Amino acid sequence: MEESKSLLVLIEGTDELLPVARGIGARRIDGSIYHWRADAAGAMPQTFISCTGVGTRRSRECTQKRIAETSPGLIVSAGTFGALVDGITPGQWLVGARSLMLADRAGGRAPLRQLEDGEAAAAQAARLRQALAGKWLDGLLVCVGDVPLIDTAEKAAIASARGAVGVDMETFGIAEAASAAGVPWLTARVCVDTPALPLPDFGALNPVSGRPYYGRLLGWAARHPLRCVPTLYGLWKLVNVYGRELARLIREGHVRP
User: Which CATH number fits domain 6-251: 3.30.70.3090, 1.10.357.10, 3.40.50.920, 3.40.50.1580?
Assistant: First the structure.
């Protein structure tokens, strides 16, 4: 890809997006909190960052729109994922280009379609992995559509049946739109929960911002008064550390077309 082409970073929620956007000095596009742009500077390419919202459909639609508007040379599926197997720790990055779409629970979580872009994005993945200095893993990321996967037994069954290491809700939609447009894509997500340390069940997330609904969040906090502060602070800190590190990697040219 031409070095002059832009980088498009797509993230599921505003909490995950803001540390990255601010870290590269990006500015809002038309005043929107969901779409940002930073001009090329030094090793950093011209970079667009957008919040896809939660789920496969929203991520696909956002990616299609942003490709038409930004003509990127590389698309990065950024944000968070949940580990399905032991041995992965919170804060570890998944850097790869493999996503398997699964049917919903009523469909038995049957595999629907798998996308890979390992060859097209090989140089970009190698550059990022080298910069991360061992804090990364590769493996199959399954996508579960628009409803979060919470059940621990179901997670274990999927990992065993599909050979997957992690799960998210957006990468397949991003990959599908990128592949259709002929744009290389790459996953660069951080682990936020594991089989031993699952996320709290906040219920459905706001599909636009990716945040828990405040009523459900407050209800969970009321039921877990001793856990709420360390748990929520830990998640906030992990996401912000990841966002600042991704911003640094973009600034230094480790993430570029």
Answer: 3.40.50.1580
